[in-house]
Write a structure and sequence with these properties.
This protein is α+β, with helices and mostly antiparallel strands. It has four domains: about 1-165, Heat Shock Protein 90 (2-Layer Sandwich), CATH 3.30.565; about 170-240, no CATH class; about 250-350, no CATH class; about 355-469, Zincin-like, CATH 3.30.2010.10. About 40% of the residues lie in helices and about 20% in strands.
Amino acid sequence: MGSQADARRFFDLNIEKVLEHWGVAEAIREVIANALDEQALSGTSDPVIERDEQARWHIRDFGRGLKYEHLTQNEDPEKLAKPNLVVGKFGVGLKDALATFDRNGVEVHIFSRYGDISLAKAPKHGFGDVSTLHAVVESASHPGMEGTEFILAGVQDSTIEVAKAYFLRYSNEEELERTEYGAVLRRRNPAANIYVNGLRVATEDNFLFSYDITSLTAPLRRALNRERSNVGRTAYQDRVKAILTSCESAEVASELAHDLEGLTQGLGHEETKWVDIATRATQILAANQKTVFVTATQMFIQAGSVQRAQEDGYRVVVIPDTVAERLPAVMDVKGEPILDVGGFLQVWNESFTFDFVAPNQLEKTEREVWRTFPELWKVVGSNARRVKEVRISNTMRMRTDGRAQAEGVWDPGNQWIVVKRSCLDSAAHFAAVLLHELGHAMSGAGDVSEEFEAALTTLLGQTGSKAAG
């Protein structure tokens, strides 16, 4: 009996500050985290979490085995050297977990090839009147075992499930895309989860996605304190942005784009309020789908162009003005231009072909209007010298302001004026369109310019004088 007592050694855990708000689930979380870290560091099999016939829970890894010396460490140099591989700093979290188990009446036994460990209260060395929590270390009962096994008695099954829910591995989260900085996960819970190397460290009520951050920044490493939960957004926001700006999948972009549309109605999530992320969404979406991006104002003012884009099979996505301002200066992820309303009009007009109509194909009322053309052309005289031909088309290019299809166009390359057939509904309508385009031919200038206005004034003066005469 005495020799058995001599084989037991009492190791003072020296826990100075007890995390009173920790429950048993948080303590089990630390045991699981250490098991997963050991698997990652040693490349061994997945940890096992199972319940035995005595209702005790076993958490077992197959790594190198726990030594009592690990309980002296505040930080493990091996884990500090591989922060993107593990979530723990072996020693601190484990001691907190052991103290929590003791406070909540959970019986703990730890086994490895290096010894068996249990918990007991014992006098502090040199201070017999002070009792502290000690690890009771005994010779290994399984000297040939691989890894480390924790056996916990007095733990509810539901508590184990709460502890497992801290880990991405056990949470059945759907991964949408993985990048060099981490993964985007489909949000499925009431709140989005923020994981660091698979361990949940925070939740977000207004995030569109959940995230698993696998490339840690220095501020994030510092923020992963001994509690490992309620990490502030400032610690991980930059990494979330880095993940999203590295995404290229259509699925992520489509969800962001849908959220962007909601943003204009005050319904968007936090990510789409970040201009960099909203811009990235347009870059991905434009490369994967025929898309035209418009602002809420353009949807109203340039409704004709928007409708044309939709008729031509484009998805029209409403974006904030702050994002729209950036689009002319960026390309999509394939290096192609991103289409806003102006870009769509340019593409549409460049691919446009006229559907010309010969005068003898016109309806009777249209031919009567067309017969006014020679007399009108005689009145403008030399002002029409740059125009080789006036033609009629069933189709017409879009106006450059995008509000509707134009009714006429001056084509300087071919030196002809094309008038839309629908303008032949009256002589006045036809004359107005024809003179408008002749003003462009005379001046070589666009609408709302002094040169164009001067040319138009001259033409109207001429035709007005002729009519008065």
